[in-house]
């Protein structure tokens, strides 16, 4: 289902798609294990996508992406925050767990993900040899 939702069409031949499918699937199951509600699950998946888009599309450095995460998550636990409204559904404890998850799953491996999105790839050579 996740493959269809992400519209991955080359999963069997694309390492990038396989890695991203694994990343989103692992995040989804982690959130399910945290017993997030549907609204929280949606907000968490949005946050995973937000962090990856900052890296892939905006080419943000690790430090800048961490600052964006801080901005996105600021105001969690406050009643009338002007931050990302969809993230106000998380408690402070849940926000800390989300940050720990992002650090472990994405930010500790940032160079690898940078290479995945921006690394120079050689053209595949197909021959009789």
Automatic annotation (TrEMBL):
List the Pfam families.
Answer: CLAMP
Give the source's domain of life in one word: Eukaryota
> Which InterPro entries does its entry note?
CLAMP
Under which name does UniProt file this protein?
A: CBCO1 protein
Q: Which lineage do the record's taxonomy fields give for this organism?
A: Eukaryota, Metazoa, Chordata, Craniata, Vertebrata
The gene is Cabcoco1
């Amino acid at each position: 289902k996740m493959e269809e939702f992400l519209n991955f069409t080359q999963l069997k031949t694309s390492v990038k798609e396989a890695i991203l499918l694994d990343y989103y699937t692992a995040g989804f199951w982690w959130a399910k294990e945290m017993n997030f509600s549907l609204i929280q699950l949606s907000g968490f998946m949005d946050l995973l996508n937000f962090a990856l888009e900052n890296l892939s599309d905006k080419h943000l450095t690790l430090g800048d992406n961490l600052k964006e995460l801080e901005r996105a998550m600021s105001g969690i636990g406050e009643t009338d925050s002007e931050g990302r409204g969809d993230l106000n559904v998380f408690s402070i404890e849940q926000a800390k767990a989300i940050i720990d998850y992002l650090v472990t799953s994405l930010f500790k491996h940032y160079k690898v993900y940078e290479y995945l999105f921006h690394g120079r790839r050689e053209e595949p050579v197909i021959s009789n040899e």
